[in-house]
Amino acid sequence: MTSERTKANAFLALNLLLPGTGTLLIGKLVAGSIQLLISIGSLAGFTKGALDGYKYCMRLLEGQPALEGYLTPLLWITLSLILFKIQFIWAQISTAKFYKQARNKPT
Description:
Elements: H1 3-17, H2 21-26, H3 29-61, H4 71-104
C-alpha cells in the first residue's frame, strides 16, 4: 500500500470519528473547518435537546401536566441530526475524492 493510500485511510478514519478532522488534514482548510464547526455545533445542539428532554421527563415524573415543552427538545435533536448527517456525507465525499486522487497517482 502506498503512502498516499495510508494517508487516505487515516483521513477516512478521522472523518468517521469526528467529521471535518480528516478533511482538515487533507489540506482543505475551509471545507474542513466548516465541517468541524458543524460537527461541534450539531453535537452541542443534540446535547441541549437531550438535556431539555430530560428536564421535561423529570417534570412529568413529578406530576406536572404534559401540555407543553416537548417540541423544543425534539426540534433541537432533529435539527442537530440533520445537520450532522449533511456534513458527515460531505466529509465522506471529501475523503472519497482524496482516495481517487491517491489511486490515480503513479506509484
